[in-house]
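Q: Sequence in, structure out?
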Amino acid sequence: MLGPVRAWRGGEALPTGSPQQRALLTALRLREGRMATAAQLIDALWGDEPPSQALAAIRTYASRLRKALGPGVLVSEAGGYAVRMPSDALDLSYAEDLAATAEKARSEGDLHRARTVLNQALARWDGEPLAGVPGPYAATQRTRLEEMRLQLLETRLDMDLEQGCHAEAVSELTALTAAHPLRERLRELLMLALYRSGRQAEALAVYADTRRLLADELGVDPRPGLSELQQRILQADPGLAEPSAPAAEPAVTLVRPAQLPATVPDFTGRASFVSELSDVLATAEGRVMAVSAVAGIGGVGKTTLAVHVAHRSRTRFPDGQLYVDLQGAGPRAAEPEAVLGAFLRALGTPDTSIPETLEERAALFRSMLDGRRILILLDNARDAAQVRPLLPGTEGCASLITSRVRMVDLAGAHLVDLDVMSPEEALQLFTRIVGAERVAAERESALDVVAACGFLPLAIRIAASRLAARRTWTVSVLAAKLADERRRLDELQAGDLAVKATFELGYGQLEPNQARAFRLLGLADGPDLSLAAAAAVLDLPQDDTEDLLEALVDTSLLESAAPGRYRFHDLVRLYARACAERDEQPNAEPPAALTRLLDFYLATAAGVYGLERPGDRTVDHLAPTSYPGLRFTDSRAALDWLYAEADCLLAAVRQAGQSGALRRAVDLLLAAKDLAETGVSARRYEAAATAVRDAAAAAGDTWVESRARTTLAQVHSTAGRFARADEEAARALAAARTANDPWVSSNAPNERGIIALYEGRHEDGERHLGESIAAFRADGNRPGEASALCNLSRIHLAGGRTESAVRLAGQGVAIYDQLGLTLRLANGRYALGMALTQAGRLPDALDQLTGALAVFRASRQRLWEGMSLFRLAEAHLAGDRPAQTAVLAEQALVALRQIGGEWRRGNVLTLLGRALARLGQSDRARACWSEALAIYEELGSSEATEVRALLAPIAAA
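A: Exactly. Output:
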């Protein structure tokens, strides 16, 4: 009933007959088994003007339905008819049951389940209810069922806003308000979604549009709830930033993170510290910010203590525990933005709802913690500045911080200085690991061992673990080994030397192949290493490499970060490098290990690039590698590898640039260019490219410099920084003339051509692209030639040469299609779709752009996904479909939120304003145009003139 009237028996579709026969079935089925008289049915089908043979017709329809539905379904009673079947055999009943289940889940605070079930209920609608069924009864029921659907939609959208899905809701609400302009609840939800998305002016404009529409159409004012919301927005009511309902529950209650690392089973001593920290955490419920900061040298047991206390206090924080290693002792501490992103995901926030800036992420994080009791363990912090954005802002939550430095500048923090263990605690820890029987027999030697370890917990644990694994050793043997002062920490020294002496103990007991692995693996700068990357460093098969890595994990000199991935504690990494400098003979082995790692990354990334872009000559212009990489046949698996290794790849680029391996460093950037267009790794990619450019310029290597500058031109262009992009590309071309690099000679003018298009310099753009096409052809790079042809198409399009624009884009698409490309073909279809839109061939344009969008989504090209949505919106506006235009433009704004730059955002806002203006929402259109104008004026963009012209009639009115 919630679509065309259809019936099934099992999986078999049953004939329901003519429209009037379906009308009879509808009238009977919606009575839920109650009898309907012949007169009632005649009225239901024909109303006040029944045909003369109406009763005979009813009997005929009933007879046919009885045969179709089978015995016992349609029955005759006392001159009337009824349909008898189970209630769950009707889609409407199923939808009503789901809606009731959703309401119950919502009342219990389970918003996630409520939304899921409500979406299942809404999915039962299949187009217009009772589609094609005639008669007054069907018309009445159709209106009722559509009203039911809208109410369920409003409920689900309300829950969307409760869970922070504001940006996503704007798109759907824009479409719904266009389809149902007089429905005030939808307008109210749209205002709230816009306000919570930071679009206050648009939210107020929605109210103004609604008030004018209601006055013009109905002669009434908006209902009080809508007017009250307008006033609250004008007053920036803090309550609007919170979930609207239920008031007693937080916006997201379902995700309960439990991220604490496992506590050690042999935790020893520290009783006073455990009691002190536990007492501070116990006050969280009545304090705005319960923060404890534990400081001490590396290896003193800060993390072990903090994790132990956190586990003891878990019951005080029933809403979950968050944990992060801030890597403060390493060369590149974790960025607060990245940490907040991970925390927000752990709390259930979808990626598309995570803001871009640090301030916005911190604000959202504090909002999500409000009213909840969550413990946050911030391990290995660099300084107070790193942790401040990560702290909760309301009572009920608490933070526990570990760091090497005392955080005296962290306001309100309870500071704890953790020193080495007492001799009694140290001996107790040693005994728990080694065994009471062995220690009791040699108590004095055991005291000598823990004293030689400087009573440092990490040193004691390593020494005891090695002794426990060697049953033939006695405690005195270990003590004798530590008697050598070169292996023992002087009690008066502190800092890294103490940790180094501890690591020296474990390192000295490694087998030769284990020690080599330890030394060489510590050379890499990345946050961790995959098993395959580690095998490249060691130049060993993966099985042998895994055995060595697991042995190092057993000795606590390496950590297993995840299945197939390994990492060093930051201090252990420094110690491993010192060992490599001291012990590697010949000295050529460390640089050879890093060369193999760089070759592995470059060869694998080149393979991924080639799989995504077959026929592209870029891979032929990369430096040759002597160590092989991984091979993929599946594009998704290849991209998964690239994105998973992003941090390691970019760390390898920077490290190679610092060590002088500039050519392979820049080529790895070329092969991993997808990282620059996803939004997730774009900033780190830009930083790595900048570092390589500067190193190449200092070294006088024009080949590398020109490639790095071309890469940076692409990065700046993607971010909307066109002046900087053009400067980099121009300097790249100047350097390329000396270096005679065909890759730069073709790609740099291609980039300059598209930049000139964006800046409105069409003659310059056509000249650059002509140069690029010639260079690509000379190099035999057909995909590159197709790219430049498609860009030239856009130049012609901007100059009004529509016919030639379609022809040029078609040539580019033909090349891509001939080569069997997928991702690059999507780029061509994007350009062709634009040209076809301007040529007025809208169905063809929509087909091209829709196909491009699907590929970009599958390839995780966030920038081009957003731009395809934008171009689709343009095509729909050209076809006078403003409602669909507004929906697509809103989706484009979401997709481009973290990539693409402000200029592209201004373009989308301008288009959205045009769509809204055609929908009669002039105030919201003005808000969009005003925001776009502010963007263009700040950038000095020529588009500002166009937007001023759009705003002028509104200002005059």
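Confidence is low (pLDDT under 50) at residues 244-253, 485-499.
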